[in-house]
Specification:
Blueprint (H helix, E strand, L loop, with lengths): L1 H32 L7 H24 L9 H23 L1
Helix pairs in contact: 1-2, 1-3, 2-3
């Protein structure tokens, strides 16, 4: 039982890191879109690296999402899905214990 709880803690931590990356990517994208920050080399490379990490997660979500024009709701959907998965896993582990 303790091993399942430990595994859940690891998955939860990785889910939290993924959510933070989605939020950071979203905020940097907004800063670029509204010209709040200049497109300096460090920020652009950091943004592109996050995009490369998250693109495999966003692509399947974007296929099912309707085209909303300039607004991309896939980060919100990914955050909701990660939280749903964590809640389900927590319920399964508590049910086993």
């Amino acid at each position: 039982m303790q091993a399942l709880a430990t595994l859940y803690d690891i998955i939860s931590m990785l889910g939290s890191v993924l959510i933070m990356l989605v939020i950071i990517q979203f905020i940097i994208g907004l800063l670029f879109a509204f010209n709040v920050v200049g497109r300096n080399e460090f920020l652009m490379s950091f943004y592109e690296a996050i995009n490369r990490l998250l693109d495999p997660i966003f692509k399947p979500v974007r296929r099912f999402m309707p085209n909303t024009g300039a607004i991309d709701f896939s980060p919100l959907v990914v955050i909701i899905l990660i939280n749903i998965i964590l809640i389900v896993l927590d319920g399964i582990i508590k049910g086993v214990a």
